[in-house]
Each structure stands twice: as structure tokens, then as C-alpha cells.
Design a protein that fits this description.
Layout lengths: L1 E7 L8 H11 L3 E8 L3 H7 L9 H8 L4 E8 L2 H9 L4 H7 L4 H5 L8 E3 L3 H11 L7
Antiparallel strand pairs: 1-3, 1-4, 2-3
The structure holds adenosine-5'-triphosphate (ATP).
Length: 140
């Protein structure tokens, strides 16, 4: 089965949103294979979002992602990458509230930046992001 990387961002860990998000995960048939609550430091956030480093919102994004703990999860099901992206909804949570009212970002997110969750955008990204957080154990 396919795996994807999901992150509950700092804003998503407030207000019982974690329970709502996890219920949505289980109701949609995902299995949580791995889970880790961590505080990202600046270096980790910069590295994770390196593809956005030239964007105007980058420093704001790094500040947001390091503003509190995040819950990193590996989710597994058939078609996990696309199905998780569909379940979380569009990037801009304020627009999601209108266009995708049942999506996780519509329910728990706030705006274009504070959108409560992350999801890998392709199977290739999923592999890279999963090994970014869960280093393969080497045998020696
Ligand atoms: P993610 O990669 O977190 O799943 P995404 O693929 O929907 O989200 P990206 O375009 O990859 O969105 O942007 C990464 C994150 O950067 C967004 O989830 C959001 O938190 C933030 N972000 C994106 N665009 C903006 C913007 N214009 N202003 C502020 N923050 C933004």
C-alpha cells in the first residue's frame, strides 16, 4: 500500500483539532504507521521547505512552522498521497471553507498560511519527506 507524510502544523494542535483530524484520518481508511510529536528548529524547517526558499512568504512560513510542536505522521492506504491531499483540501483554508467545506483545512485551518496540515504532493515527495523525518535504521 502507498504511504504519505502528513503533518499537523502548530495551529492544528490547538483546540481539539488533533482529535478531529485523526477521526477524519481513520474514517477515510488510513492507517497511521508512524507518529512523532516534535518541535522543529529553524534549520529543520528551512531544510524541509527548501523548495520554497526563494518565495516571499518563506521566512514567515519558517516562523509559523517553528512556533510550536508539530505532529508528524506516516499514513498508509491505497492511493494515500492523492487521497490525503483531497481530504485536506486546498492550500488556502479561508477559500476551502467556501469551496471544500468538509475538508480538514476548511474545518481546522484559518488562512493561506495557517492551514493546519501538510500533505506530500507526489509519491516521490512522500518518500523524500518520510525519510527526512524517519531516518532508515542502518545495520551498522
Ligand atoms: P503543504 O506543502 O504544507 O501540504 P501546499 O502544498 O498546499 O501545502 P505549498 O504551496 O507547498 O502548499 O506551500 C507550503 C506551505 O506554505 C502552505 O501549506 C502554507 O502553510 C504556506 N504558504 C503557501 N503559500 C503561502 C502564501 N502565499 N503566504 C503565506 N503562506 C503560504
Amino acid at each position: 500500500k502507498e504511504k504519505t507524510l502528513a503533518i499537523i502544523k502548530p495551529d492544528g494542535l490547538y483546540d481539539n483539532c488533533t482529535d478531529k483530524i485523526k477521526n477524519a484520518i481513520f474514517d477515510s481508511g488510513f492507517r497511521i504507521v508512524k507518529e512523532m510529536l516534535i518541535q522543529l528548529d529553524e534549520e529543520a524547517a528551512v531544510s524541509f521547505y527548501a523548495e520554497h526558499s526563494s518565495r516571499s512568504f518563506f521566512s514567515s512560513l519558517v516562523k509559523y512552522m517553528t512556533s510550536g510542536p508539530v505532529l508528524i505522521m506516516v499514513l498508509e492506504k491505497e492511493n494515500a498521497v492523492a487521497d490525503w491531499r483531497a481530504l485536506i483540501g486546498p492550500t488556502d483554508a479561508s477559500k476551502a471553507k467556501i469551496t471544500h467545506p468538509n475538508s480538514i483545512r476548511a474545518i481546522c485551518g484559518l488562512d493561506l498560511q495557517k492551514n493546519c496540515v501538510h500533505g506530500s504532493d507526489s509519491p516521490q515527495s512522500a518518500q523524500r519527506e518520510i525519510s527526512f523525518f524517519f531516518k532508515e535504521k542502518s545495520s551498522g
